[in-house]
Amino acid sequence: VQFIIDTVVLALEENPDRKFIYVEIAFFKRWWDEQSPAKQASVKRLVVNGQLEFINGGWCMSDEAAPFYVDMVDQQTLGHLFLKEHFGEIDPFGHSNFMATAYALMGMDSWFFGRIDYQDRAKRENQTTLEMVMHPSASLGSSVDIFTGVTRGYGFPSGFCWEHNQDDPICDDPRMEEINVKSRVDDFVSAALEQAEDLLPGGSMYTDAKHAANVTWTTKTDDWFPYCDGSATYDPSTARIDTNDGHAQWTGYFTSRAALKRNVSGTSKQHVADDYAVHLQRGSDACQASMAGALEQLSGAGQLVYCPKLNESICEATTLWTEGNISVVVYNPLGQERVEFLRIPIGASGGVSVIDATTFQCVEAQIVAESTGGRTLAVEAALPATGYSVYTLVAGAGPQCRAADTSERRLVSPSGSNSIQNAMLRVVVDPATNQLAALENKKIGKTVRMTQWWGYYIADGAVLRAVSVLIKEVPCTIEAAKECA
User: Fold this and answer.
1) Which of 47, 81, 154, 369 has its CA 20 to 30 A from that of 452?
2) Rounded CA gap, 100 and 148, in Å?
3) In terms of C-beta density within 10 A (0-12 exposed, 13-18 middle, 19 or more buried), how is residue 437 classed?
4) Cβ neighbours of residue 191 closer than 8 Å, sequence gap 6 or more
5) CA distances from 366 to 36, 315, 347, 362, 377 (A)
6) For residues 3 and 240, what is the distance between their CA atoms, to the nearest angstrom?
7) Cα(104)–Cα(98) distance, rounded to whole angstroms?
8) Long-range pairs for 261-266 at CB < 8 Å and ≥24 separation?
């Protein structure tokens, strides 16, 4: 990035007709801090002249699907504060519906991105509907409508990938037989001109031209999920999409490494993800120390120990606890009340009671067995907005507040299968495997037998092996439901 900005600024300074747009402020700030006052003044002139334009203006170009909305807004604010400090007020322009709403509320009047499902792209390219007006919020109405464009994506021009494809390198040494600098430059200019014919969107000039055209655009109200990469063609005469592949589903991306993606943008190589994790952990550690001190003073619960691995059923403070009582403080950072189910690994072997430390009322709870052999206490916690609740766990307490203990027994139906049901459906679970065994539609009297198994994918270079959770359905009559179960 350093060399990109160096050469771009030099090129802009040499020719006032040249223009460049820049997005991610985190990298720009690192470059800016290393520049002399004279160079910084030159860059400010480029901004004033309209040659250098900051679009979006966020600290990063955040992923538009996975992160929590508060983090999206915070990183956007951080980037805008830097630009306001050094360049004055800015006029930035831009796949979830929230992103369209957020950008519109931030004052942006256009939103561009490159990644949509390949079948959707094939149809929109054929119907020339890659540009539209997003109407993302029924409650806010037209006040958050935003002009939206799908670009050709991003990446290297064909023939210029030295990371994966081992394309011909550029050799500019006249003493070498392999000298190819002229042909390589010609190829690159040709690729740039091909894309320039489409007048690639992204800057204010393009958006202004679109608004001035006074065209009636199609609208879109839903989000852009799910994603799948592939290639397809659209036949308008039959409204049929012919697809050649489409195994690169992105649904798993949104669930893997969820904690990381709630805070950090997009995809990355492993060493980059590791660096993100280090910075996030440093910030988290600093926040934990501050929060622990505040909650100790407010709650009066004594010295607190943070349990960062509850998602792995690990918390030494509660698993080493075997007698007496212990306080659990739960903090809610959101601006609204929440009801959450806490899963607390416990070491106490007998009965456990849960008491609200504020009201001294019993709190409903349940002890469940873990596959590792341990026990987990599940507690329904009511949490105030931007506040905390304190619960007292008492080991060996009497029956009045004792948590229901299901860790050593199974609820087995007379037929030998676990099942749950309502007025419409009955779900049968195999007691030996705890997997789905059958589903009965009670209204029509039909039972479907199910065999469930799990799969995963292995990324092998450019080859993606399909992944899914598969359910095999075998219909059977209600009379043979016992066999199906």
Assistant:
1) 369
2) 9
3) buried
4) 157, 158, 159, 160
5) 64, 18, 14, 12, 6
6) 47
7) 10
8) 261/63, 261/66, 261/67, 262/66, 262/67, 262/68, 262/71, 263/67, 263/68, 263/71, 264/63, 264/67, 265/60, 265/61, 265/62, 265/63, 265/67, 266/61, 266/62, 266/63
Catalytic residue flag (residue 91): yes
- Distance in angstroms (rounded) separating the CA atoms of residues 11 and 19: 9
Name all contacts of 142-147 with Cβ < 8 Å and 24+ positions apart: 143/104, 144/100, 144/101, 144/104, 144/105, 145/104, 146/94, 146/100, 146/103, 146/104, 146/108, 146/109, 146/110, 146/111, 147/109, 147/110, 147/111, 147/207, 147/210, 147/211, 147/217
Q: In sequence order, which ranges of 232-309 are alpha helices (DSSP H)? A: 258-261, 270-299
Residue 30, helix vs strand vs coil: helix
| 3-class DSSP state of 331 | strand
pTM for the complete prediction?
0.58
**In this predicted structure, what is the pLDDT of residue 411?**
47
299, amino acid identity: S
Beta pairing class for 52-54 and 110-113: unpaired
Q: Containing H/E element for 340?
A: strand 338-346
Which residue among the candidates 6, 91, 172, 208 is catalytic per the annotation? 91
**Token pair belonging to 93:** 């322009």
Identity of residue 64: E
- Is there a contact between 469 and 455 (Cβ–Cβ < 8 Å)? yes
Chain-wide mean pLDDT for the chain? 81
| Phi, psi dihedrals of residue 353, rounded to the nearest 5° | -115, 150
How far CA 72 is from CA of 39, 99, 103, 212, in Å, comes to 31, 9, 10, 31
pLDDT tens-place string over residues 65-83: 667 778 888 888 899 889 8
CB 100 within 8 A of CB 111: yes
